[in-house]
Amino acid sequence: MNNSIRTIVNLTLWGLGLACFAAVPSFAETGGRRFDHSDSDKRYLHHIILYDINNQKISPESDQPYSPQNTCGRCHDYETISHGWHFNAFRNDAAGNGRPGEPWIWTDERTGTQLPLSYRDWPGRFNPASIGLSELEMTRHFGGRLPGGGTGAKEDRDSAPKKPITASESDADASTEPSRWALTGDLEVDCMVCHAVSGAYDFELRRDTIAAENFAWAPTTALRLGDIAGSVAKIKDGSDPEDEATKSKLPKVTYNANRFNTDGTVFMDLVRQVENNACYQCHSQRSVTLHDGTVGGLDEQWVHDQDVHIRAGMNCTDCHRNGIDHQITRGFEGEIQSTAAADMATLSCVGCHLGTDFYLDEDAAEASLTQREIANRPGRLGAPLPHHVGLPPIHFEKLTCTACHSGPIPKQTAAGLMTSLAHGLGEKAHRNGSELPSIRGPLFVPWDMSHDQGNVRTTVARGIWPAFWGELRDGVVTPLSPEKVYTATRKSLRVRRGFIEEISRPELSSKELADVLGPERAKIEVNEYTEEERSKIAAKQLESGFAMFDEKVSASLEAIQSELGVESAVYVSSGTVYGLAEKNTQEGDEKNAAEVTEPAGKLREISVKNADAVDLLPWPLAHNVRPAGWSLGATGCLECHADDGLIFASTVTPVGPSPKAVAPLTMASLQGIADADRLLWNQLFTGRSTFKVLIATSLTTLAGLMLIGLFSIGRGKPTRDETLTSGGAS
Amino acid sequence: MWKIIRRLCLALLVIEIAVLVGTSLPTWWGGHLGGYRLLAHMIASGVVVVLLPVYGILRWTDWLNKPAVSRASGITFWLLIVCGFLTIASMFACMLPSTSTTWMRTLIDFHGWIGSTMAVVTVAHLWQLRLAR
Q1: Which residues on A lie below 8 Å from B81 (Cβ)?
Q2: CB–CB of A706 and B85 under 8 A?
Q3: What is the DSSP string of chain B?
Q4: B67 CB within 8 Å of a chain A CB
Q5: ipTM exceeding 0.85?
Q6: What tens digit of pLDDT does each residue of A623-669 get?
Q7: How close, in Å, is residue B117 to chain A by CA atoms?
Q8: What is the dihedral angle through the alpha carbons of A39, A40, A46, A50, rounded to the nearest 10 degrees?
Q9: Per the CB < 8 Å rule, is B88 touching A695?
C-alpha cells in the first residue's frame, strides 16, 4: 500500500515537473536572449556601476582597474561575444578563418625584419608558436591593435588548442609566461574600443599602456577614468607575483572622482552601431609614392579620396554587421554565414549591387534566395544596379569586383602602402614612407575564391616580400625568433636606427660626398642637389651598401650559428635567401640547399624548397572603393587589353631591407600569363574597331540579301525542278 | 571560275562552322569559353563574317541565271543566311558599348542556340546540294 502511494506521489510530482518545464519558454523561444534588452532604435544611456578585475564595485577611492568582463558582462553575453571575429585574431579556427587577410607583421628596423605571422592557418604566414614567439610577446607587440581576447584573456589561453611546440618555444613560455601573465593581467575584450563614441576613447594611451605591459589597466586608462602609476614592464622577469614586494610594484589606479555620479555610477558614452572612427584605428591605409623604386615620400592625406560608400553617407557597420556573436560580416564573396544570418549573404559587392544569384546558372538562379526572398534581391541599402554596358560577362568569371573598382589608383608601378596594423598609423610619428615593412600595392594577383582551387579570379591585393633571419634545414627555410635574433646580432650588426639607412643604403660621410660631388658641391644642403647628383649619391650609397651588407650580414649569420646553435643560418630579403659563402659552412649547406648560386663576397644566394616562405605574400584589399568612373576599363576594352594596360603591364619590384636590386615583375607574370599570349590578345583588341566595321558590313550585306530573297519569294521564282517539269530552259 | 570560288567559299564556311561548334562545345556542359579556344572561336568567326555574305551573293547570283536545284536547297540556303545573320548580329550587339550584362547574357545564350541551329542548317544545306548533284 505504502509503495503504491509512493509511486502515485512520484508520478504526480514528475508530471507536475514536466508540465512546469514545458510551460517555461525555451532558450530558442526567447531568441537566445539571456539578458534584458532595450529593443529600441534609440540609444540606451549607460550610467553603470564599474567592477574591477576582482569583481568588486569600483568607487573613486578604488585603486584597481575596471574590468570590461565583470562590468559589461553583467548585462551582455561576454562569453558569446568573446569568440567573435577580432577577438579570435590570435586563434586558429579552420572553419571560421575565412579568406586570408593581412598578417601580423613582426617588424624590427634594427635587424631588417618584416616577418608575416598569423595564428590562423593561412598560407605564407608563420605561426608565432612555431618560431618561438610566446603569446605574451605577441600580445605585447600587437596588443595595441587587438581589441582584447584571444591569447590576452586567460580563459582563451587555457582552452586554446596547442600546436606542437619547438624547444625554443617551450623555453620561452616556461621562462616568461606563467609569471608575466600574472603580473600583466588579462587583455580582456574591451567593448569600448569599438563602442565608445568618437573622442571618448584614447587609443594612443591604450597602446602606450599595453606597451608598458599594463594589459589589465588598458581599458581604464583608455577611457581616461583615472591615472595609472607604475609599469609591469619595469618588473623583472621571474618575479614572484605573490611576493609582497612585487605586488607593491604593480600599477595603481587613481580614479577621477568627477567621472562618478552621486549614486556611484559612471556614464559610459557609447553607441550600439560602431562609428567609423573606431574602425579607422586599425583599418587605415596611406600610399607612398615611389620614384624608380625608391621612396618619394608619404602621400599627403588631402590627396586621398574616401571610399565611395562612405562619401555616400554609409558607415562601415552598414555592411560589416554582426549579431551578439560578433562574427562580423567581412563582405567577401563566398563568406560562410550562419543560418540565422542568411540574409547577410547579400552584404558583399555582388550581393547588394547585383543580387546573390548573379553567378548562378539558370536552374540554380530560379531556385535561389533572390527569387524567393525579397531581401536577397539586388539594391540593398539603395545600391545602384550597375549595367556594365559593353563588358562581356567573362569578366565576372575572371575578375573580382574589387580588381577594377577598389584600391589606390593603379599606376605603371605599384605604390608603397602603409597600414594601421603594420605601420602604426594613428600614432604620432615622423614617417617618410620608407619604414618597414615594405608593403606594395595595388597588385593584381590570382585568388582562389572558393579555397578549393576551383574558382580562381584576379583580384587586387597588397603584398610584401618577407624579410627575416632563419635556419636552413634540408633545403627548407624557417624563421628564427626575432627577439633572439636581435640579441644574437646586436654586436655584429651594430644598428641603432635602421638596417636600411645604416647598412643597405648608408649615409655618406663628408669625405665620400666630396669624392662623389666634388669639395664645393659636397657642402650644399641636401635639397639643393640636382637630379644627377642625387643619382650619383644613390649609386655610391648602394655600392657602400653592398659591401657593408656583405660584411655585416655574414658576421651576423656566424653569430646566430654560434649563439643560437643553428647549423645553417640564412637571411631572407626581397625573395632572395642569403647564406654564408665560407668553405666550412658551404659544405654543410650544399646538402641542405635546393640550389646554390655563385658566391658574391662572403655571402651567397641560395634557392630553397619552400619558395612560398620567401616569395611575395599577397592579401586581397577591398577598400577604398573608387567611383565607377574611376574603375579599370571604364573607358573601354583598350584600357586593359593594350600593351600598357595596367592590370597586366604595371609592375612591382620585390623589395626588402637588402640592397639587392631585383628586376620588376609585371602583374601578368604574377597572374601566370605569358607575355606572348598577352601581346597576341592585345593585337586582336587593337583591330576590334575595324572588326566591328567588317561585321556591320557583313550584316548589311546579309540583310540586303534577305530582302532580295523575300522579294524573290514574292515573285515566286521557280526552282529548277519546277522549270524542268514545265518544259522551261535548264 | 565563279563556281570554284563558290564551292571554295562553302567548303571554308563548313570548316569554320565546324571549328566554331567544336570550340564552343564545352560551354554546353557549363564550361566557359576562354583562352586559346576563345581565340580560335574568334578567328573562325572572323572568317565566317566575311565568307557568309560572299557565299550568299555568289549562290544567289548563280540562281539568278539558272533556277535553284531544288526547293529544299533554296530553303536551307535562306535558312543559312537568316541563321548566320542572327548569329553574327547577336554577337555584334554584345560588342556595342550599350549592352548591359543582363542583356549580354541573354544575347550570348541566344548566340549559342542560333549558332547551333546554323550549324545544323549548314549540314542540311550541304546535304541538299549533294543530293541535287
Answers
A1: 702, 705-706, 709
A2: yes
A3: -HHHHHHHHHHHHHHHHHHHHHHHGGGGGT----HHHHHHHHHHHHHHHHHHHHHHHHHHHHHHHS--S-HHHHHHHHHHHHHHHHHHHHHHHHHSTT--HHHHHHHHHHHHHHHHHHHHHHHHHHHHHHHH-
A4: yes
A5: yes
A6: 999 999 999 998 888 899 988 999 999 999 998 899 888 889 999 99
A7: 17
A8: 10
A9: yes
